[in-house]
Amino acid sequence: MAAIDLPRPPFMDSEELRMLEDVMDRFCAEHFTPEKSARYRDQGYVDREVWLAAGASGLLGTSVPEEYGGPGLDFRYDALLMERLGVNDALNFAQPLHNTVVVPYIIKYGSEEQKQKFLPGTITGETICAVAMTEPGAGSDLQGMRTSAVRDGDHYVINGQKTFISNGHHANLIIVAAKTDPAAGSKGISLFLVETDKTPGFERGKLLHKLGQEARDTAELFFTDMRVPAENLLGGEGKGFAMLMTELPKERLVIGWQAIGMIESAINKTIAYTRDRKMFGKTLFDMQNTQFKLAECKTKATIGKSFLYNCTELLLEKKLDAATASMAKLWISEAQGEVVDECLQLHGGYGYILEYPIAEMYKDARGFRIYGGASEVMKLLIARSL
């Protein structure tokens, strides 16, 4: 029995994709051993050298066009990389955020000067990206943000704070959302490319201690009269909310592909454990309850991956709508929690011990139903399509 026997559809199966899969698997085997992963969790972040190694292996900036030094690959390749991170228990490495969420904003909305300036570093790992939208009082409700940006000559002066910012410890290029016109509602939000090493008034808070995903560095950010050159405005003043809404369907698939990778890893590890664990004179796997539980898990995994393939194809054809993407994020993240919980239960007492990967997955999985839009928000978005 394997976690997912689903054959790849033709659009997701090519020699180039399989080669990239092999590169990612070897990268994870080297940099995300159990010992190294435990150290990353203890220190609260993945070593910067790992980012540089990912760049050297061709695993960063995958969608950057060739004219800026990248390979110009489409979302299929990012989907594969995210899935392999999950299968290899390396999801604490926030490469998907960098590759598939932040860098595409610069590719799609950046000026020629911005692309020339910022994109090359995102490929090598010298530039690590983050996006700062969430505030202490404004999570899923982006229009409730209070961070302000006021034009002052050739600069914008930004004041406010952000929280729960992944890559917040490492990132040296952060897309910051701020209100340039508080009276204009959603049309008053703008995005800025903030170079953290060169910007006075920028300050990082301490690393936030989380229930799981401890090595995915997450921090608060503070802006005190932070002066950002006007040339770092991304896509035009007041265009920020529209840009964020346009990219959100893809970002929900980003979460889904990572979740399906974790689901596959959880099932595979549980199959191996139950085949080895003896109870009442036979293996745990030989018991009907174990087989029924694993059959349910495999069914959920197969349904989830089939839906992701469908959504990915729609995305490539520019046909993926917000409601369908929300369904994918909702269903797969909820299924992830259910599958990981069942797999932990089949490990018995050992499933509660952090030396076993399933225990780490149990902690890590919980956040998937919250970030990128909580499950309740996904239901609201789906309901609008009724």
Question: How would you describe this structure to a colleague?
Answer:
With 386 residues, the chain is α+β, with helices and mostly antiparallel strands. It has three domains: 10-127, Orthogonal Bundle (Butyryl-Coa Dehydrogenase, subunit A, domain 1), CATH 1.10.540; 130-238, Beta Barrel (Butyryl-CoA Dehydrogenase, subunit A, domain 2), CATH 2.40.110.10; 241-383, Up-down Bundle (Butyryl-CoA Dehydrogenase, subunit A, domain 3), CATH 1.20.140.10. The protein has helices spanning 15-31, 34-43, 48-56, 75-87, 95-109, 112-124, 240-276, 288-316, 322-346, 357-365, 375-383, and strands at 129-132, 148-152, 155-166, 173-179, 189-195, 202-207, 218-229, 233-234, 278-279, 282-283. The model has no long low-confidence stretch (mean pLDDT 96).
Tell me the β content.
15-25%
**Low-pLDDT stretches:** none
Q: Spell out the helices and strands N to C.
A: HHHHHHEEEEEEEEHEEHHHH
- Span between N and C termini? 39 Å
Q: Would you tell me which CATH topology of the largest domain applies?
A: Butyryl-CoA Dehydrogenase, subunit A, domain 3
- What's the CATH C level of the largest domain? Mainly Alpha
Please tally the β strands and state the result.
Answer: 10
CATH superfamily of the largest domain: Butyryl-CoA Dehydrogenase, subunit A, domain 3
